[in-house]
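Module 6 notes. Inverse folding takes a fixed backbone as the condition and produces residue identities as the prediction. Think of it as a translation problem where the source language is geometry and the target language is the twenty amino acids. Below is one complete input and output pair. Work through it position by position during the lab.
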């Protein structure tokens, strides 16, 4: 799109996602109206910018310059155009020039700024500012006019000029000293020193430095108090450096804390510096119980449960939220507290002295999203606590439980009976019917109902009574005799084999069944009236004529609840070191019994439950319960008095004998799972059982399931060896750190740019005149050359922008 001048204060949307350099330049040119020249060989970049709100054209251009700087490029004016060049050798490019009277830009453009120094040496200033320049920046001192020429990004030049403004003050013999602080926050140390020593241009009444002991060693910390940060702070690149000439006057003019490097920039005479250094040596020591922040990832257990256990161990069961002992804030807490809290979820936190077990305070916090423990302690305490965590975080064994439910039922029933009836119209004209007999339903249905002809059935049936069809709704014979004899048998064999895989000390449950509706027995008033009518009609017709009232009995069925039935197995295994398993078992078997006649659809649930605890060994089959039940039911229907007559009473009664035998056994076999091979063996066994079932009941059936395994992602023997070696190396590192490393010391060093260098060793030499307490000679390594890589520049001169 074409460029259209924007009104002042107008804003645009500036969001990029993996944009290359040509697209980025085209977008900025459209927004700002600037003209750009790209080299023929364009560097490949992927620029991403997220701006939740719209920005002005100037803000978008500043972001564009920052993107170029991050990728080693910048812009150089070329007439009405801007050339995009690499920052390597930028001092030789025709970049914009600004003198001391003109304001320089504050963005990431590379410019050259000339600044005349008034009160200190330009060479000293150049040496000092070289520690603050960027990787491609350059600082040059021109001695004849005491001028400093700086080539760097505009934002970094402003930063260096702020430092220069603080040190370019009238003085008498002051020098610039840079002293790193190892254990205390530099800002706190500067405030404390400012309260002890008079700081200012006229502060010349400081105590004499004759009592200073520059050769004295710092008090060594207790065992386990050295942190990993101390090793980095003791490196040669982080050592103290001074700038300027020595002077015997005792004057402390400035104390400037540098938060980025946690160092103090002192503008003072050498005697004042030595006096301050002596106090720093006594104050900058690790506090008891101080340590770093350690993150331990829990491999097998739950981080919150382990944190709760450790809280009880450390805090003596209190589990209270911890803080530094005595209400003091640990040194450097201002720099580390934010990092510790970032991304941490609420968990078990504890702190406490721990008696003689731990040296200092310990804080343990569980981070649920990563299942990790965040521990704040000394290295020695962390090494001791880590051994406890490893025992608690041991791989938990699993148990494969194979249950068998064997149930057998045998039913036998015998029925024998004689039924007869006789009937006639009461009067041919009044429409009534006379009917009588013994068990008349059997003889009445003998000829008309084929379902009654089961077993042995013999009978005689007379002619139909006239008008019976009209009177009762069906044909009634004048007489009938029926003899029935029936014997039935039924066998039931149920075999259920539920199995489940359970974690040690964790409850597991498997449930196989269905959810069935249960009919309630509630009826409305209309239904009750129907039942009453049915009973009255039954009495009048001896159970035959009342069938017509059945429709009124079904009025108003209530709600229908549902219930789960089937097989449920709940088990909690507890495995000890002897491969014995304590099982907490709850097994339930429920089924729906067939509805009985006249129950109006109400269903009965048969339930068998076993709940017990036992101790078994691996692969040992045990019987956890069972049931043996015999049931014999004798039923007899007869006519009173007549059915009790010897021999002849058989003609007036019916007999039924029902015998039921039921046998229920519950078996259980546990298998301890130690590794992946045990799981594979169980998988193969179950697949074989399935195939045997298919071969037995189906013809040529084959439905194997073989899951795909990516062996490039599995952990083999070589990976196990590598992980074990890494673990041993980490244990050795913790052990060495816990023994206590030599802490970094505060020793007097030469000021920046002033100490002579020994041509043989390359060391800076401080002569006897630099030590007021004696004639000792202290040597220090010369400043390292400018770094050749970004990784080196992060810790030395030309570090990252604040």
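Target side of the pair, the amino acids:
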């Amino acid at each position: 799109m074409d460029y259209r001048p924007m009104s002042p204060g107008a804003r645009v949307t500036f969001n990029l996602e993996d944009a290359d350099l040509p697209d980025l330049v085209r977008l900025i040119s459209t927004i700002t109206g600037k003209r750009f020249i790209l080299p023929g060989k364009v560097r490949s970049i992927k620029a991403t910018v997220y701006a939740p709100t719209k920005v002005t054209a100037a803000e978008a251009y500043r972001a564009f310059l920052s993107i170029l700087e991050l990728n080693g490029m910048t812009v150089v004016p070329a007439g009405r155009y801007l050339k995009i060049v690499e920052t390597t050798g930028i001092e030789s490019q025709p970049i914009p020039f600004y003198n001391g009277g003109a304001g320089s830009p504050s963005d990431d453009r590379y410019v050259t700024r000339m600044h005349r120094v008034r009160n200190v040496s330009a060479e000293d200033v150049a040496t000092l500012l070289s520690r603050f320049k960027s990787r491609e920046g350059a600082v040059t001192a021109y001695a004849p006019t005491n001028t400093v020429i700086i080539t760097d990004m505009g934002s970094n030049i402003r930063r260096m000029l702020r430092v220069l403004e603080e040190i370019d003050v009238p003085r008498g013999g002051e020098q610039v000293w840079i002293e790193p602080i190892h254990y205390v926050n530099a800002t706190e140390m500067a405030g404390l020193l400012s309260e002890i020593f008079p700081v200012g241009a006229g502060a010349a009444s400081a105590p004499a430095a004759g009592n200073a002991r520059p050769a004295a060693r710092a008090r060594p910390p207790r065992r386990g108090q050295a942190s990993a940060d101390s090793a980095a702070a003791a490196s040669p690149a982080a050592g103290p450096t001074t700038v300027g000439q020595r002077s015997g006057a005792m004057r402390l003019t400035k104390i400037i804390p540098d938060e980025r490097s946690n160092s103090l920039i002192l503008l003072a005479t050498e005697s004042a510096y030595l006096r301050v250094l002596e106090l720093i040596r006594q104050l900058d020591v690790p506090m008891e119980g101080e340590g770093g922040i350690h993150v331990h990832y829990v491999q097998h257990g739950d981080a919150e449960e382990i944190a709760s256990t450790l809280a009880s161990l450390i805090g003596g069961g209190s589990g209270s939220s911890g803080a530094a002992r005595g209400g003091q804030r640990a040194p450097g807490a201002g720099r580390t507290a934010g990092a510790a809290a970032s991304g941490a979820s609420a968990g078990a936190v504890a702190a406490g002295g721990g008696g003689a077990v731990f040296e200092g305070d310990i804080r343990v916090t569980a981070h649920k999203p990563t299942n990790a423990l965040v521990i704040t302690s000394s290295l020695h305490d962390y090494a001791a606590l880590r051994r406890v965590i490893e025992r608690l975080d041991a791989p938990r064994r699993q148990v494969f439980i194979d249950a068998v439910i064997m149930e057998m039922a045998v039913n036998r029933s015998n029925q024998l009976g004689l039924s007869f009836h006789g009937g006639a119209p009461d009067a041919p004209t009044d429409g009534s019917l006379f009917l009588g007999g013994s068990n008349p339903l059997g003889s009445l249905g003998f000829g008309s109902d084929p379902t009654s002809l089961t077993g042995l059935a013999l009978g005689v049936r007379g002619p139909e009574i006239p008008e019976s069809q009209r009177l009762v709704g069906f044909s009634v014979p004048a007489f009938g005799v029926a003899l029935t004899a029936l014997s039935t048998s039924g066998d039931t064999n149920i075999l259920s084999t539920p199995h489940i895989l359970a974690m040690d000390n964790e409850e597991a449950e498997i449930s196989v069944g269905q959810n069935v509706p249960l009919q309630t027995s509630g009826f409305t008033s209309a239904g009750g009236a129907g039942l009453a009518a049915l009973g009255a009609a039954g009495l009048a017709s001896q159970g035959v004529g009342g069938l017509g009232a059945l429709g009124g009995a079904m009025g108003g069925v209530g709600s229908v609840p549902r219930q789960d039935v089937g097989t449920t197995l709940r088990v909690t295994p507890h495995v000890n070191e002897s491969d014995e398993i304590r099982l907490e078992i709850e097994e339930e078997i429920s089924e729906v019994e067939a509805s009985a006649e006249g129950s109006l659809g109400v269903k009965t649930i048969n339930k068998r439950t076993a709940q017990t605890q036992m101790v078994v060994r691996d692969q040992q089959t045990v019987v956890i319960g069972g049931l043996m039940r015999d049931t014999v039911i004798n039923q007899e229907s007869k006519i009173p008095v007549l059915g009790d007559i010897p021999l002849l009473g058989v003609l007036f009664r019916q007999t039924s004998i029902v015998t039921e035998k039921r046998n229920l056994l519950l078996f259980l076999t546990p298998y301890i799972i130690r590794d992946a091979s045990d799981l594979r063996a169980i998988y193969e066994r179950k697949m074989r059982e399935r195939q045997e079932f298919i071969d037995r009941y189906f013809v040529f059936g084959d439905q194997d399931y073989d899951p795909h395994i990516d062996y490039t992602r599995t952990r083999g023997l070589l990976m196990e060896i590598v992980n074990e070696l890494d673990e041993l190396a980490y244990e050795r590192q913790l052990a060495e750190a816990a023994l206590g490393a030599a802490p970094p010391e505060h020793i007097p060093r030469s000021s920046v740019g002033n100490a002579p260098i020994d041509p043989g060793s390359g060391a800076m030499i401080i002569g006897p005149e630099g030590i007021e307490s004696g004639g000792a000679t202290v040597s220090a390594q010369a400043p390292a050359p400018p770094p050749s890589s970004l990784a080196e520049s992060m810790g030395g001169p030309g570090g990252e922008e604040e």
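Reference fact for the lab report: DSSP finds 17 helices and 32 strands in the chain.
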